[in-house]
Each structure stands twice: as structure tokens, then as C-alpha cells.
Amino acid sequence: MLLLGAVACRKNSSTLPPVNSNVSNAEAASMVAGSVSINSNGVASLAGDATIDATGIGSLHDVCGTIKSDSISRQSSAGSAVTFSYKLKYNYTVDCNSSSQPDSLSSTLTYSGSFSGPNLSSSNSGSSVFTVNGLLPTATDFVINGEFKRAGSFSSKVDTTHHGNSNIDIVINSLTILKHSRNIVSGNAAISVTGDVPKKGSFSYTGTLVFNGNGTATLTLNGTVYMIKLDTGDFARV
Fold this sequence. Notes:
By secondary structure, the chain is α+β, with helices and mostly antiparallel strands. It has helices at about 1-15, 25-35, 45-60; strands spanning about 65-75, 85-95, 100-115, 120-135, 140-155, 165-180, 185-195, 200-210, 215-220, 225-230, 235. Helix content is about 20%, strand content about 50%.
């Protein structure tokens, strides 16, 4: 009977939901901010890369099916509040519409590196699969759809007991960027943050991200709302 009771206890504990006190809501929000902002090589930075390449490929009038590759090494500037270093590898394929006109890019990305901000430091790698619409000269905007992933180790600077592994998944929908300025004007994303802290267990947060068109994005994470500055990654609870 004691043996059966021990087995039952183990079985019940394995089905318990993640304990999010292992990582606070604000720390999870910091992970998201680092995954979307420009100064930590987040989604906003990658969107800028993609539109620059889209502009270059469109101006060369490449034929349908043309494959291009681009490698980038990116580091933070001296004295920055957030420091980072990343290596990125893009692959693009020129896609055409029914009239055989190049109108979009299909792209894959792999990257690795690290960043350190006021609240969190992380060493990570990731991938992204996305499309960039808007290559036609008549299009006024680039529109990006796809998925961005980042996984690795993290360490909180707010609570040093909070360190472990994290996985961040961002599914981007209609991220719209003006061609002439390359400013993000709208779009949204579904957010998932999961991971584990040694000896404490796992954590899980889900939410949404709305790009506001003024250099900020509104993150709603497990019901808590934050405002993120896309250039610096600074964020505050609303």
C-alpha cells in the first residue's frame, strides 16, 4: 500500500501545472522585450534586416525562384545599457504572383548569440520562418508573417535564484512596415514563454503583442499589460 501511495503521489505531481512563481510575470515580460526589441536583436531588428534585403532584391529584378543568402554579425555599441552579440544567417527565395511578377520573399533564419540588459542576461540561439510581402513597386508597405523562436539559458539580475532555461515562441501576424521609412506601423503576435528553473520546476506564460505604430508594442502576458519600447527594450507595467 505504501508503494502504491508513493507511485500515486509521483503520478499526481507530474501532472501539476507549471509553477510560475519560479519566474515572475515581469521577468517573463523582460524575456519577451529582449526577443522583440532592436537593441537585443529581436523581432524588430530582424524585420529591419528582411525589409532591407527585400528592397535590394526587388531593385535587382531577380527572377522567380532566385535564392539569396545573407550573413550578418551584429554587436552593441560601446557604452550601451544593453549589450549583445549575434551572428545571423538568412536564406531568401523570390516568390512570384500569378502574373510571374516577384511580389514576396520566403525566408528562413538561424542565429546565435547573447545579450545582457538591466533585468536579465541570456545566451541563446533560434530560428525564424517568415514571408515578406510587398516587393511590387506599387506596394507602399512590407507585410511580414511568420514565426520567431529563441531558446537558451537565462539569469535574472533582479533575483539571482531565478536562472535556468527558456523557450520563447512569437507567431507574427501582418507586421506592417512602411517602405519609405521602414517604421513598423501595425501588426500583432501570439506569445509563448516556457522554461524551467533548476530545483524549482517549470514555468509557462502566454499572451499577445500589439505593435502600436509609434515605436512601442503592448504586451499582455497572463493578463498583465506592459508597454515595450522597440528600440531599447525598456518596458513598464501599464
